[in-house]
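Intended use. Records like the one below are meant for learning the mapping from a protein sequence to its folded structure. Do not use them to infer anything beyond what is encoded.
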Amino acid sequence: MPRMSEPATALKNDTFLRACLREPTAHTPLWLMRQAGRYLPEYNATRARAGSFMGLATNPDFATEVTLQPLERWPLDAAILFSDILTVPDAMGLGLSFAAGEGPRFAHPVRDEAAVARLAVPDMERLRYVFDAVRSIRKALDGRVPLIGFSGSPWTLACYMVEGAGSDDYRTVKTMLYARPDLMHRMLEVNAQAVAAYLNAQIDAGAQAVMVFDSWGGVLADAAFRRFSLPYTRAVVSQLKREAQGRRVPCIVFTKGGGGWLEEIADPVRGCGADVVGLDWTTDLGRARQRVDDRVALQGNLDPAVLFAPPEVVAAEARAVLDSFGSPLRADGRHGGHIFNLGHGISQFTPPEHVAALVEAVHAHSRHLRNAK
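Structure written out for the chain above:
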C-alpha cells in the first residue's frame, strides 16, 4: 500500500478548499481542467524529453514538473495531479497505450463474460508511480496551493474498457449495457471499488481534494444514467476518506452533459454525496445555483472555446459567468461556493496569453463583486 504523506505544510492559499466547503473567500478561486497540457510550450518540451505520454505520466519527476508549469505562469488557486483517468484499468492489465496523434487505446478490451469475470480491483502497488507523484508535487508546491487528485468514474472507465478506445456512438458499451446488464453491473461494481481505493491512496499520499470525472455520463439515456452511472459514482464517494491532516478533503463530481440531472446529483440523500458539482457550459450557472439551493458548491463553467476569442472578450465572458453565479453571500447569511473553471478541458490550441486574461478577470471581478456588497 502507498506510504502515508509527510506532515502537512501550512497552506498559503486555501481559497479553493474554502470555496469547495461553501466558506467565505476573498475572491472566487480558479483552476482549469487540463491546465497542464499541450497548449503550453513548456509542457510539449517536457513531453518530448519523456519520449511519450505514458513516459511522462509514469515518471514522478516529469509529472511534478508539468503539474507546476501553469502555476509558474499564473496565480491559479489549485494544482491538479498530472496523470490520466485510465490508470486504473491499465493496472487491471488492459494494456493502455497512446499512439502519436491518437487518444488512449487498450490492447485487451473487456467485451465478453469471461473478460468481465476476470476483472478485479488491482493491487495499488501497480499505481505507486501515481502516489509517488502526489508526494513529489506536494513537496514541490510547499503549501502554495492545494493539490487535487482524480480518477475517471466507474461508468466512464467502463466506456473505455469495453470500447477499447474513445468512441463516437458508444455502440459496443451500450450494447452490453442493454443486452447484458448483469455484465455491466459486475464491471461497474469492480470499477467503483477500484476507484475508491485509488482515490483514498491519493489522499493518503497527500491529495487535498479529489475529483471524479464522469466524462461520458451525459451519453446515457435518462433511466440508464440513474442505473449505471449515478449509483456507482455514489458508491465511490461513500467510501472516500473525507478528512486528512486535520482538514476536510472535498470531493468534486463532474458529469459532462449532466445538467438535466443536477438536482439528483446534488441531492444530499439520493445524490452522489459530493461537496462540489461540476457543470459544463450548457447549463446556466445562476439557475443551477437556484436549483441546488447552495446545498453543494458549483464548479465551472466557461465554454473552453471562449479562450480562442480576443483577451477582452475572454475577460467579458468570465465576468458574465461570475455575474450569473452572483454574490457568494446570500441574503439569509448562508454562503454559496463557486470554483471558476471551464465547462470541460482546455483545448490544446488555446493561446496561453488568453489564459492570463481569464485569470486576471476572474480574480479582479470576483473581488469587485464582494466589495460591492
